[in-house]
Specification:
The chain is mainly α. The chain is built from two helices and no strands. It is rod-shaped and about 75 Å long.
Length: 76
């Protein structure tokens, strides 16, 4: 496990402390879970952007192939 030092906005810290006292969870565990959740969220966003980029790259070719199939199937 790695040790880090970080600065947290006062309002975020106070709200976190309030929540921690109610859920009876250690600050360390809470921050680890929060970072894990946020990392998974960011990975989904990055994947979505990658899929959008790749989709736009093949869009024209896909339409061209579809048009060719329609031409072959239904004639000119």
């Amino acid at each position: 496990m790695k040790t880090i030092s970080l600065k947290i906005d006062e309002t975020i810290f106070e709200k976190t402390e309030q929540i921690l006292s109610r859920i009876k969870k250690s600050r360390n565990r809470y921050i680890n879970e929060a970072l894990d959740f946020y990392n998974r969220h960011q990975e989904r966003i990055l994947l979505e952007k990658k899929l959008q980029r790749e989709s736009s790259l093949v869009r024209k070719e896909s339409l061209s192939v579809l048009n060719e199939f329609e031409r072959i199937t239904y004639g000119d």
